[in-house]
Amino acid sequence: MIRRSLIGAGLTLALALGLAACSERETPNSAAPEVLNFSILATENSTSLDTFWRPILADMEKEIGIPVKPFYGSNYTALIEALRFGQTDVGWFSNLSGLEAVRRADAEIFARTFDPSGEDGYRSVLIATASSGLTLEDVLKCDRTLDFGIGDAKSTSGTLAPMTYLFAPEGVEPERCFKQVRTANHQANLFAVANGVLDVATNNSTAIRLQTARDVENRANGQPTVTDKVTVIWESPKLPEDPIVWRKNLDPAVKEKVRQFFLTYGKGEGPEAERQRKLLSAISIGGFLPADSSHLLPVREMEATEALLQARNSGDQARITEAQATLDAIRVEREALDARAGEAPAAAVTPVAP
Known about the structure:
Layout lengths: L8 H13 L14 E5 L5 H19 L3 E5 L3 H9 L5 E3 L2 H10 L2 E8 L9 E6 L6 H4 L7 E4 L5 H12 L6 H4 L2 E4 L2 H9 L5 E5 H10 L1 H5 L9 E6 L7 E5 L4 H13 L6 H11 L5 E4 L6 H18 L2 H24 L14
Parallel strand pairs: 1-2, 1-3, 6-7, 6-8
Antiparallel strand pairs: 3-10, 4-10, 4-11, 5-8, 5-9
Helix pairs in contact: 3-4, 6-13, 13-14
């Protein structure tokens, strides 16, 4: 989701081949870029995203004094690889894809979003067609009668959270439980369930809230809306908000300009601040706060918890021991961070029976 629209398998393949050709290239140096390429995670189709992000990126361009171009990838892996090979400089990621960017693309987290509602965090949800009468118990029967939609493999709310909090604890493997499993972004899954193409799918509270706001006009006209046609049958515990990352070797002077833009955008009083907040609200962002790698501790714990649950389901003792050690180490790290911050230790991500 950066400056170019990468829609369809052909364009995705072209990007992959282009990145592969760059695999032997040295990591880009820290010279100030002539253009700042900003990647945007694929929560919905690139045309919709461009409508909402263009005026924000225009404000960024004016503030930092460098042209800013959007990069819309067709999936999270494309965004990670683009950052890794210097095709992008800064980006809005999900927590899981942001973690992969840190691991594989030499990225750093410097900010994170917060919600305009004031609630700090959002939830993964499972939605079903409202007229179907489906319940969570029906979904967990694993009788291969339902068509299921899941998110990108690197999506926190579309894949990691439902696997960690719902499917792995129940010993459910989607590929073995459903008649068909389709992968798509949140918007596509929402419309597929609303239109009866899928029986049930993963989604998140932010996407549902955005679509509800967009449905207002149809609802006022007495027409059926997308969100009227779906019902939430499960929700996760609260998840951390999304990180904003940059490549570590981006020019320091440019970094500071970008940092100041994000941490001041939509802040303060007056018509200009109100205009900026309205633009952010359209993508369910209230603004940005400083952040660092510790922001990813909850998602690392979720990742390790899912791995442990899957290891236990496999019955492989060596795998169980390794997964438990990984999870324990992350929990020690989290507790140390809480202690330094003077906070009570956070609750474990999910109960894991021995």
